[in-house]
Amino acid sequence: MSNQIIDKLYEKVEKNGVVCVGLDTDISYIPQELLSKFVNIEDAIFEYNRRIIDATYDVVACFKLQIAYYEALGMSGLRAYSKTLKYLRDRDLLVIADIKRGDIAATAKMYAKAHFTGEFESDFITLNPYMGMDSIEPYLPYLEKHNKGIFALVKTSNSGSGDIQDCIIEGKDEVYEHVGSMIENLGKDYIGASGYSSLGVVVGCTHREQAKKLRKSLASSYFLIPGYGAQGGKAEDVALSLRSGNGGVVNSSRKILLAYKEEENFINFEDSSRKEAIRMRDDIKRAVLELEAKNEG
Amino acid sequence: MSNQIIDKLYEKVEKNGVVCVGLDTDISYIPQELLSKFVNIEDAIFEYNRRIIDATYDVVACFKLQIAYYEALGMSGLRAYSKTLKYLRDRDLLVIADIKRGDIAATAKMYAKAHFTGEFESDFITLNPYMGMDSIEPYLPYLEKHNKGIFALVKTSNSGSGDIQDCIIEGKDEVYEHVGSMIENLGKDYIGASGYSSLGVVVGCTHREQAKKLRKSLASSYFLIPGYGAQGGKAEDVALSLRSGNGGVVNSSRKILLAYKEEENFINFEDSSRKEAIRMRDDIKRAVLELEAKNEG
Predict the structure, then answer these.
(1) Which residue in B111, B133, B167 is closest to A71 by CB distance?
(2) A145-162: b (≥16 Cβ within 10 Å) or e
(3) Which residues, other chains included, contact A257 with Cβ-Cβ below 8 Å and sequence gap of 6+?
(4) CATH number of the domain at B4-296, please?
(5) pLDDT tens, A208-227?
(6) Domain boundaries, chain A
(7) Which residue does chain A place closest to B160, by CA atoms?
(8) How many CA atoms does the CB half-sphere of B87 hold within 13 Å?
(9) B274: closest CA among B19, B98, B43, B69?
(10) Would you tell me which residues 142-161 of chain A have a C-beta closer than 8 angstroms to some C-beta of chain B?
(11) pTM: predicted TM-score of the whole model, two decimal places
(12) GO: which molecular function terms (chains A, B) (predicted)?
């Protein structure tokens, strides 16, 4: 059992709770007052992210950057992306790069180099497994040698996710169960002291039954859980994907970033974000305790 | 029937043949003599790409940039990526951005903005459909309003592609057939004068039986065909995915880019690439004629 980054994430959750702040920063999210101080989009986005990070880091498990929002702003956006990653990593905070890449081996090696080293280095990345397990394998040496982690898509939170993922395979289970078990097997070599593997899975909380089934069948897979809040997932749904309040991190982007828009007289946007992160953490903690009481009762 | 970019690609194939040059440019591919002229990686890569483009554009259908190779070089790589796209589009040459993105609707809109407009604008992009059809739909308005095109992954060329794609769905066909038919249906509104849709599919030529089946079942889907050459696919395999020598473009990257390494005394690397592109074009043309003769005989 080697040193695994998943153990570090596990510890963060033990200490700070399950919230993952999604820094899916759109320019329209930045309060006018802050935006007007900057000439470059790049600087405005980085400063916005920095303030959200500083205001929340001690009440959340980790951060997630959705790269699409940065790619949409071209080179400036990607510079802000790179700077935000560096800011997080310099402070020993954990960051997931939500890139959902997936390609053949030679190309996968390039993506691994791109997102596990250099200017876009992050701690965890998300991957799309549609091309098969040989499109995941080229990333695995980084789990062992560079202390990196992966979350592979298994059952996503969107309503169309059933188109492929819910199809029932002849003589087997649904596609998502099949994919989940292939990932779980591939991750056996990267299980840390926490009992979880640094090769984890993405399981949305918006599909209750599927999430429950996966939580049962995937013993050593850590969950990255999207779908809470803006996408309709509730704390009670999230609780089904956790084990004793750990075993997963729960992403929220817009609800945390735009919390200030819900307050009539907010003073600092980042204080509103912090309040929402704490509210979410406690909301999920309550649901976990209620579920445990029910299961014991 | 509106103006569709797929018709432009169809015409290019009628005129220049089916070859798609894969500009998956790794620094190690650049001859030392050229590399040593540049201080910046960015300039070296762009100059290499430019020379390959200038040497091949009249004997090929289009170009494909595998973004992973550029992401792996950080900001410099992405600047070279952006410059290469612009160089191609300024010359009215067609380019496919091989990005294989796939995400929920709000994020998909960001990827569409990123790769169909601005600094990373291309003519076609590749998409991964694992998350379902609502992860493809946000790109479709660009097909109509901005004359753009898509190739969605259906059956990929790698050996592990069967892990998910070949699973047989209860009461239905294989996953790849199911995905292919969903994409074909979604593409019905974007069929051009050529009879093909600007929403096409990726079908590797390394899996003969699957490619044959898909060519039969997908009447209006244009094929982007990887797997020829370095990955083991032969002209005879490719011919099965075409119709009268059209209906698809066939990618080759390393075999065209590194053609100069096969020649003992090459003069210009780009001349070697041109020769290989012509050889490949004619190799496939021959196989198409042989297959037609066989089918008629």
Answers:
(1) B111
(2) eebbbbbbbbbbbbebbb
(3) A22, A23, A24, A25, A29, A52, A273
(4) 3.20.20.70
(5) 999 999 999 999 999 999 99
(6) 4-296
(7) A132
(8) 20
(9) B19
(10) 153, 156-161
(11) 0.97
(12) orotidine-5'-phosphate decarboxylase activity
